[in-house]
Write a structure and sequence with these properties.
The complex is a heterodimer of chains A (283) and B (385). Chain A has nine helices and eight strands. In chain A, strand 3 and strand 4 form a beta hairpin. In chain A, helix 1 packs parallel to helix 3 and helix 7 packs antiparallel against helix 9. Classes of the chains: A mainly alpha (283), B alpha+beta (385). Chain A: Keywords: FAD, Flavoprotein, Oxidoreductase.
């Protein structure tokens, strides 16, 4: 197999990074329209994983993730506006169900789509100020999680973890204590190295998951579980080391670290933690 | 990025598979085991010679050195096919992969003819004299001295951990030729035949058994080495030490992947329903993916540290999980922990405890995990030294 991003994919990654950096801080609606105009919602799985990694890196506030990886694979189409889907069989903590324009429901009768405005959905208060999760009240729900939904959360998680590591690296390169940069201490270096390895491992598995979905390879279900589990394991380490190495600064509301830590943790908790997917892999 | 191999690689793999099916040593023939990493039984010498003659020993080399000028993906396929059949291409791995490879890169034509080709053809074996009592992770602190004298050098000093030295015919030895130069600059590489007067080798046992003799202390007292045995330019030994590993280092991860693969197979019962078993599968898949990625052009060599750290630590934690899964039964030694295979006998007789203990070779040798983390932090993440 070949496991290097080709030139077009590398170019895409760079241009997504530039675009996301440029529109950051603008009204959410403008960001969303930019993504739409650039055709990101139509991206095939591997390209979508690259886009989501960058959106995760930026703690993107739009409903892109749910639209591209929850609604689209369940319905086989894109929604008018934004979308999400209920496929967990219970309708709990459904990403963006309180604000999506269309919501797809997986019930024992198949897939039905209802306008968001007509849906009984109640936003759940959560620690992350940007995260929209809602409970949906509907009858006859059944569970069948699309591979792409697991991949989407995994890729977003990897991006958030990379951001945490980058923020930590900036901090420990600049912050001087005892007459030397914190980053010159081996205890700090080794934690940073372990974060890097965990991110590389999880990212490799998200790319593999995307490839198996794109080629409809028989390993696609296992690969999606692996990607989700590895991203969860990664965020566990990155959250712990990332917050610890940022010191008291990382513990404040003003420091942006909090958004990325919370995004990473949410991606693990939604649709099953690492442990759930390790078990699924054994089944 | 794609899942399938290129057709040329598939073709190459099929050719080699057909060769292996026709030429693998028979069980009756392969009874004698290798005593150390430089002790090659007669049957294994014949096997290595067969590979050399057919151009299947080191496929990346030209035919005169046992290869066929193959690219990196082909070299990977070659090692994968060997591992699948649980056979080594050489029972003197450092001789083949490091010493002969260094000579092919840095040696003179005469050195290639006199030393590299005989090592490749398994006519002689070689060991690598790098570490010293005071120079382990800090290899460049080595103190063994070589003083120019007439048309050669006189060498005095001591090496340690020299795997297989007591069975080897020649040592590629790193020595200090200029004590005034900065520590990385004054090092040179010398070939020292082990029969030379003043060379004394003392093998000592490993954690696995008193008579598991691979480690050696090597004492060098007034050893005379002719000038023609200098490998690479005088004072360029550090470059030889780093450059010699070349492609071997790029493919080093594969040995960890193969060990993980063995653990997956051998621990299937112990791991049934256990989450660590799923982690092991993820480690293996990620290691292979990152390893394939490293075959691409313009990869940062520091990324090899990611592969080594991930691979060696995964093998270690997997070995511990399997050992724990067996409880007190894991104490039994020797134990049968793998399926019998006539060319891979070690697995069959190694207890789980021994396999766990041996896993520390991966996290200590060739740059400890701590050194790998420093390399990742400094060279990839840009943290200050």
């Amino acid at each position: 197999m070949e496991f290097e991003l080709d030139e077009e994919q590398q170019l895409l990654r760079r241009s997504v990074r530039e675009t996301v950096t440029k529109v950051r801080g603008r009204p959410e609606k403008q960001q969303w329209e930019t993504y739409l105009r650039l055709g990101w919602l139509e991206a095939p799985p591997l390209e979508l994983a690259l886009i989501l990694e960058e959106l995760g890196y930026a703690a993107d506030p739009t409903p892109f993730l749910a639209t591209a990886t929850w609604f689209a694979p369940l319905t086989g189409r894109l929604p008018e506006g934004s979308g999400t889907a209920v496929f967990d069989g219970i309708g709990r903590y459904v990403l963006d169900a309180d604000r999506a324009d269309e919501v797809a429901l997986l019930t024992h009768r198949g897939v039905t789509v209802v306008p968001g405005a007509e849906l009984a959905a109640e936003r759940v208060p959560v620690l992350d100020p940007h995260l929209h999760a809602a409970h949906v009240d509907a009858d006859g729900l059944v569970a069948a999680v699309p591979d792409l939904a697991l991949l989407g959360l995994a890729a977003t998680c990897v991006g958030a973890c990379r951001r945490v590591l980058d923020l930590v690296l900036d901090h420990v390169k600049q912050r001087v204590q005892f007459g030397r940069p914190l980053g010159s201490f081996q205890a700090v270096k080794h934690k940073a190295a372990d974060m890097h390895v965990a991110i590389e491992r999880a990212r490799a598995l998200t790319h593999f998951s995307a490839l198996t979905i794109a080629e409809d390879d028989p390993r696609r279900a296992d690969a999606a579980h692996m990607a989700k589990a590895a991203a969860g394991e990664c965020q566990r380490l990155v959250f712990r080391h990332g917050l610890q190495l940022s010191g008291a600064m990382g513990f404040t509301w003003e420091n942006e670290l909090q958004y990325h830590l919370k995004r990473a943790q949410a991606c693990d908790l939604l649709l099953g933690t690492a442990s759930v997917h390790r078990k699924a892999l054994l089944a | 990025m794609k899942l399938a191999d290129d057709p040329e690689v598939e073709e190459f793999r099929a050719q080699f598979a057909a060769f292996l099916d026709a030429h693998l040593p028979e069980e009756a023939e392969a009874r004698e085991r290798a005593g150390s990493s430089a002790h090659v039984p007669a049957w294994a010498r014949r096997w290595q010679r067969t590979l050399f003659d057919a151009g299947w020993l080191l496929p990346g080399q030209p035919p005169e050195y046992g290869g066929r000028n193959a690219g990196l993906p082909q070299q990977l396929a070659h090692l994968e096919e060997l591992a699948r059949r649980r056979i080594y291409h050489s029972f003197n791995p450092q001789g083949l992969g490091i010493i002969a490879a260094s000579l092919l890169t840095f040696g003179t034509e005469e050195q290639k003819r006199r030393w590299a080709v005989p090592i490749l053809r398994a006519e002689i074996t070689a060991a690598l004299g790098m570490s010293e009592p005071e120079a382990g992770s800090d290899l460049a602190a080595l103190r063994t001295r070589a003083v120019a004298d007439g048309d050669g050098f006189v060498v005095n000093g001591q090496k340690i951990w020299t795997s297989g030295a007591h069975d080897a015919d020649v040592l590629l030895t790193f020595v200090r030729t200029d004590p005034e130069a900065p520590k990385h600059k004054g090092i040179s590489a010398l070939l020292i035949p082990t029969g030379t007067e003043g060379v004394v080798r003392r093998p000592f046992g490993s954690i696995a058994a008193e008579d598991d003799l691979d480690f050696n202390e090597v004492f060098l007292t007034d050893v005379r080495v002719p000038r023609e045995n200098l490998v690479g330019p005088l004072g360029e030994g550090w470059r030889v030490a780093n450059g010699s590993l070349g492609h071997e280092r790029t493919l080093l991860w594969l040995s960890y992947a193969e060990r993980l693969e063995d653990l997956l197979l051998d621990a299937a019962d112990a791991g049934a329903g256990q989450e660590w078993y799923a982690t092991l599968r993820m480690d293996l898949t990620a290691l292979r993916l990152l390893g394939y990625r490293q075959l691409g052009p313009d990869r940062d060599p520091a990324e090899i540290s990611v592969l080594k750290l991930l691979g060696s630590e995964a093998v270690q934690s997997a070995s511990l999980h399997v050992l724990e899964a067996h409880g007190a039964e894991g104490l039994e030694h020797p134990g049968r922990t793998g399926p019998y295979h006539h060319m891979h006998h070690e697995h069959f007789i190694s207890s789980w405890f021994e396999r766990y203990a041996r896993s520390f070779a991966g996290t200590i040798a060739g740059g400890t995990s701590e050194i790998q983390r420093n390399i990742i932090a400094e060279r990839i993440l840009g943290l200050p030294r």
